[in-house]
TrEMBL record, chains A, B, C, D, E, F, G, H, I, J, K, L:
Organism: Herbidospora galbida
Family recorded in the similarity comment: Belongs to the Dps family.
All residue ranges annotated as the Ferritin/DPS domain in the record: 18-154
Protein's recorded name: DNA starvation/stationary phase protection protein
Chain segments annotated as transmembrane: none
SUPFAM superfamilies in the record: Ferritin-like
CDD domains reported in the protein's UniProt record: DPS
Domain of life where this protein originates: Bacteria
Pfam families reported in the protein's UniProt record: Ferritin
Family annotation (InterPro entries): DPS_DNA-bd (IPR002177), DPS_DNA-bd_CS (IPR023188), Ferritin-like (IPR012347), Ferritin-like_SF (IPR009078), Ferritin_DPS_dom (IPR008331)
GO terms of molecular function: ferric iron binding; oxidoreductase activity, acting on metal ions
Length: 155, 155, 155, 155, 155, 155, 155, 155, 155, 155, 155, 155
């Protein structure tokens, strides 16, 4: 079957592929967990968090799309299927049922912090292999850190 | 913990809950598979399908949100976490890697047909227990059948 | 040649096909007659009716499109050709030439009433065979009844 | 004086008239009470509720308009005058003066629940007499139940 | 309970409170009566008046909101509940049922004239106590006088 | 009955009337046939043609409206009723049922070419009698020739 | 002082200058008279005509601007000062005071017809000297004839 | 003939009428002179002034419309015909032909200053007779003074 | 150097200048302090206040711009440089570092109240010298009082 | 290979082809030279010209696109490649490096005048062979003459 | 009190904090000085610079906001109070009173150049400690250098 | 003549100048070739590629503008004249005449790949001399690689 040619060397491509696929799993699972909380949250801060969680979901979806399209543009196939997410995610998973607003703040602060930590490592390792992918990850990281601050500030 | 009061009887609520949670799994997995094909598709019809798949993803995301918010509004907790999707989905799963455009058309036709078939059963069983949920499912079903036609017409 | 698969039984499909094709003829001819009056009307109420008739035309065109796309989505070929309309329409036809505003009000009131009467029958017969098509017809019927009131109120 | 012809039988029209006029009173009084709270609310949740109450008011006004225009379209005169509202409303009335945010949440939850309960009865009784009016009430009911959840979730 | 501090003296506040609460009753009842006519009007001028009445309703609702928010900003609680309107309104009340277009023009001309007359008195008495509230009332009065002209010009 | 005065001589008016009425029949039937294909088309180019056919329909509808309003502005009554279209159209008529995409391209190329050929004759004959109508026909002709190229380029 | 070079011969420039300056006077005075009627009209058709007159004023202002900018572009100075208008206009002038709606319809029909008659002469004489200016006048003429029809149709 | 009732006393109405009619003449002539300069200006500052003059024309037209509609709303007939403007204007009139940019700045500064001076007198005399009209004139005056500064600053 | 001519007497200009320059300092420092809190706020109400503070900043910036442009329009030079603000501000200054949400509510209530108090004095003293400036200050004052209420209501 | 059928005779097509291809070269090179000046201009009029040059570039690009699409619609292949432009352009070429604003005004005046001169010849020769192409060229010519005036007026 | 956790080491955080706080002071003072010139500028280039200065102010405000929010996101408290700006700014301060346009060009060129020089140093020092902050500063620097060119080109 | 000061050292400026001027030639010629194919393409994929090529042209034009403005901002004169493009381009040039869709896909894939290859070299060499220009080139490169994938995927 046809495939997309890559301008990266095999080694650079391998490093970039790992960084992008890892980011994709983080971001897609963030979008699912953000919606899970958006629907099941309960408490006095319901409305503020209900709205903010939707902003996080939008950020996660748009960033996931950019990361996946970057992957295919450098000749790597992104994988965002449910089973892949379930097996490879590093994110804290909510329990089913209602979610207390205070616990959502605490959990989402942790989730965002863990993603940011991995994004910063990916920024470091992609600098030489593919500065174009690195620049994309830097932009996404800034937005995630901003959301991390705005969730954490509500503790 | 606080919870949302339901105006439905226990039995009606159980039937409605199953219909809505089942729809949620169908729709969220459709959104993930739609994106998977949107990224990895290859072939002469690439651009037309790349764009149409994004319309299907938008439809799936918006419908999933409506269904989940309907669930919580009748006192039922929706569950859209990755593991839940992976374990409960009935949808045909794409192989990883590039996806030939002809195969995407065939697979997506099957996927949409299987969802529509289940949606029609849910429309039937919710008529008495909760006509408000039924009306939501009817509206979603019409859009899914329209996409089913527009994908299938390209075979 | 390829065709679109239908999820309806043969009998349900037949009933639904008749309801949708009948609606299509009613709505397309309404759009032509609405324009005919929009252009040829004359009298003190010219401007109000000229504008309102264009709203009716928009409603008729959008509804016709929805009905025809619903037909093909359930495996039925809609037919909106001029000869089909000329032969199958039940609507009162204007004479050629200028149309007095008072007569336009009276004639359009009758035209809308006759369509609504048929739409209500179609709503009844499609309930069991295809509640999705029925829901579409209900929505269109509500808008037609609203226009019927707003034309009639000017008598 | 002229009047609008009705396509409903006398009996069907009577049932439909009661359902629509009852809905109109509920919705218009909801719009007045929503504004009353929008202006006089006080407390830490002021801003969130001030904004959400305006969404409820918009929903109530738009729904009231649709219900009243549906009434006249089936030959029934809607009545939304102040005295009619004052005499026929079933809604809990706020005391004059400042309204504590916690009490607004509790009262508005009750108000919405009582309207929804009546709307569900109206949906049931209009199914046979006028499925077009029923469909309108179903759509409004879904939005009211959604607001009921989002207010209640803040308790 | 908490309350909003006022920068006005007790006497100035009393005068301003009366002017604003009086305006609120006038404007909210105007919005209800405007809708009542918008729905029940009948006659050759139906469409023009149906549309103009909705402009009056929008003006009345927006002005009522500004007036009530001005009241609470100077430490006064606005009261816009149905019973308050029913008991305190000075406006001519329409009979239930269809409303002839000529009579709507005549009645609405009177209603607007009576409100304008009271608004002009309120403008006079608030000049010294609260020029900020006066300026708001002047702006509303100009719009009401414009509508008064445009309704009256159709006699 | 009242009528619209014409600034054209009897002879000029006759020539102009024929050109405009002929254009109206061409354009309205183009709009009906464009929709017929928009709904019933099938094949690998489905989506591209489905969208392009809707652009042609929009062009046909807007142009028909301009032509008909031009006719009445010069004192001529346009006739766009279904029977008139059925009897006077020169356009190739599709068979009922599914339409293969390749055949739609071929047929629509012919349809557009035949209309353009007649439009060019109308442009020639209206130059002296009514340069204002001629200018309108020139503008429409350019758009039709553009669509003719863009359909034909897909053969 | 500097001036704008003209690409037209002296004779062609003279003919074009007269056509454009004559159009400018017609159009600017039309804009003033349209507003005069917009403000002072009275009668049952007040609202329809009040709105339509503003469309005529917009058309007149935009057309006047295009004509004047065309003049300076071919090296001719347009003159749109009040005294020039007062001395050179050929348009029927309204009496001061209220204007009955029927009389506005009759007068505006005459005004538009007289402008159209002169525009058609200007279209004829500019064909050879400056087809670019002619094309501008043709476009304006079409819009004026459309307004002429829509005013006259209300007689 | 019918007329619009006035809420002002005869004396107050007379003062207000003079202030509004005087403003109307100033503003309409400003709109004509602004366009005259917009078209005929020449010099290095052409583009900046060409654009700014159009802002002044928009301000003049909108303000004239508000002033005239205010007049009729208080029972006074505004007069904005060409001859009235030519005979009653106090504004400096440009010579025909090209206008040097420096001279446009100087002349427009004088024109705006003279209008502002009269507006300030009108603000003073209308305070008691009609504070609603006064408030309108204050708002217009502020915009005119702003344009006066921005033209003058370019000297 | 050139300067802007003033239509005010020396004495009136002096009073107006003080009122406008004082307002400018208040409003610009409000915009800086609003941003300071927007960035450094922390606590459960973070998101609501973070958003509301940005509305206050927008109001302060737009109002400052209007006030400064009014100053120069009456021949007075506004001064909004950092040192001028630092030396002349009367507003409570936040400590550096994180700001607790409760303290932000209390401090911002005081800040707005002190500005409103000074604005009301400026409204009083400018009435005679320059009613145009007074009208501007009245409009700004109303918005500030509204924000004062909406912040204070959260205590 | 496939090609687009032409409705023009061989001779008419040849004349039209030359006119359109000549226009294309003029317009594309105008777009390149407009950008060259947009970037390298220097002097006190920098900002005004920088902006105006971008308007000219937009006009040139849009017109070039219309001309090229017109060519292919009549069966002629447009050629807009860099070498074609370099070899066939008649336009004055700027020197590399900074461009003094006065010289840009002079040079752009000449460039536009030379294009207009050729456009007028093309308008003349295409009248009989293809009035549809002629009409397009007339419209473009008017815009170019307008820009010619607005650049020249700054000398 | 609560605080925002930082993912940076103490040393990296210190370097980043200095770069961001330094940028904040530069950008906020640029916004104040840009407005100071926007209001007080005088001369033939008034309008062009008045508008361009507002673009610079918008850039400065948006950039300041991004920089400050970046600071708090990495655990550093931004300080943008008036006294901080007055004491720490490095920017050239305008004299009070009117500002000649030529001097504004010269001074703003210097101001922008000095900020750019410091931004480039900050870009260098933040590369290792925080590439995310560095990327933000790079983006701001590009816009500042663009404004520096566009101001300087007018000398 | 005046010139723009550069903050770069002579050596850094030379490297940056070459990277930016090289990019400009690549991007402008891409815009010309994209349009050449947009007009002359023929084949079953006509419509998809016709639209996609216009996206590539928009990207090329916007990027060229950013690159050229970056050049002048660092004191380098960009050169985008037709002869410069013709002599310095490295891009594959299409033959004149119709272009088969398959060949357009192949050729455009090559064109984009060759540009991307040079952009990556420019990103490498500008890292030290001017990280601001480098960041701009990285952003453009990402968009070009995305288009490269989306064209290539259609082979």
């Amino acid at each position: 079957m046809a495939s997309i040619t890559s301008l990266l060397s095999a080694e650079d491509k391998k490093v970039t592929a790992e960084a992008l696929q890892g980011s994709l799993v983080d971001l897609l699972d963030l979008s699912l967990l953000g919606k899970q909380a958006h629907w099941n949250i309960i408490g006095r801060s319901f409305r503020s968090l209900h709205l903010q969680l939707d902003e996080i979901v939008s950020l996660a979806r748009d960033s996931a799309d950019s990361v996946a399209e970057r992957a295919v543009a450098v000749g790597v196939n992104p994988d965002g299927r449910a089973r892949t997410l379930a097996e490879h995610t590093h994110l804290h998973q909510f329990e089913p049922g209602y979610l207390d607003d205070g616990k959502v703040i605490a959990a989402m602060t942790d989730i965002l912090e863990s993603i940011v930590r991995r994004m910063r490592e990916r920024i470091e390792v992609t600098e030489k292999p593919d500065p174009v992918s690195q620049d994309l990850l830097i932009g996404i990281c800034r937005e995630l850190e901003k959301q991390h601050w705005m969730i954490q500030a509500q503790r």
